[in-house]
Specification:
Elements (H helix, E strand, L loop, with lengths): L4 E11 L5 E12 L4 E5 L6 H8 L7 E6 L2 E2 L5 H11 E4 L11 H5 L9 H14 L15 H13 L5 E5 L7 H16 L3 E5 L3 H6 L2 E4 L3 E2 L1
Parallel strand pairs: 3-8, 3-9, 6-7, 7-8
Antiparallel strand pairs: 1-2, 1-4, 4-5, 9-10
The structure holds adenosine-5'-triphosphate.
Adenosine-5'-triphosphate binds next to helix 1.
Protein name: ABC transporter domain-containing protein
Keywords: ATP-binding, Nucleotide-binding
InterPro entries: AAA+_ATPase, ABC_transporter-like_ATP-bd, ABC_transpr_LolD-like, P-loop_NTPase
Length: about 220
């Protein structure tokens, strides 16, 4: 069976205003199967977010290939990548941005809107909020929640359409240790449920919880 996600010889480089090239990832290989947690580690500014954006099909690599279920993204048009991403990937960016004028429940239901499946997915949204201990705040606005609760809401939103692959950028950043550990436990439960997870993190506890690590600038261990 093909990997859910495969990066082969992926390099990511950006040119600054003077034209000087900064290479963030150099010939990175990564294969991710169901029930595995892979952590992209590395110091501040080492390119973790960029690698995750490449894996999520949001940024084209400078060289190398990215495949989902064995399908090379370079062979697909932008619309095809977007529709496959919607079915295949739950992505949470580093800010775990929520829409402040919507309730917690409405934020979780956002992926249902373009598919007109809001009514059908209400039950799943409530179930995810209950699973994360957030049933009581379903009607609250995001600003009323703690940073840890907001991150769990963003994760619930990413899980709404039951994607096989989660891509999470620094899911414990900005959380106190107890909230960060709660998030790591939730990610472990997702892995045990058979989901594949790709995370970027500088949090040693999350790095230690991973099955495989790619350290930018330092190879794979
Ligand atoms: N679109 C872009 N154009 C030019 N340079 C960029 C672009 N995106 C990122 N960079 C550069 O790449 C560097 C690494 O960015 P990236 O966010 O991928 O690293 P990171 O390891 O996730 O950082 P952090 O730990 O701070 O979140 C940035 O400091 C920036 O200089």
């Amino acid at each position: 069976m093909a990997s859910l996600l495969e990066l082969r010889a992926v390099s990511v480089a950006f040119a600054d205003r003077s034209g000087t090239l900064t290479v963030l990832a150099d010939s990175l290989d990564l294969g991710l199967r169901t029930g595995r947690l892979h952590c992209v580690a590395g110091p501040l500014g080492s390119g973790k977010s960029s690698v995750l954006r490449v894996a999520a099909g949001l940024l084209r690599p400078t060289s190398g290939t990215v495949a989902w279920n064995g399908e090379d993204l370079a062979a697909l048009g932008e619309d095809a990548v977007a529709s496959r991403r919607a079915a295949h990937i739950g992505y949470v960016d580093q800010e775990a941005t929520l829409l402040g004028h919507l309730s917690v429940l409405e934020n979780v239901l956002l992926p249902a809107v373009p598919r007109r499946r809001g009514a059908e997915l209400q039950g799943r949204a409530h179930q995810l909020l209950a699973e994360f201990g957030l049933a009581e705040v379903a009607s609250a606005r995001p600003a009323e929640l703690s940073p840890g609760e907001r991150r769990h809401v963003a994760l619930a939103r990413a899980l709404l359409l039951e994607p096989p692959l989660l891509i999470l950028d620094e899911p414990t950043t900005g959380l106190d240790r107890a909230s960060a550990d709660a998030m790591i436990a939730v990610l472990g439960a997702q892995r045990a449920d058979g989901r594949a997870l790709l995370v970027a993190s500088a949090d040693q506890a999350l790095i230690d919880a991973a099955d495989v690590r790619s350290t930018l600038g330092g190879g794979i261990r």
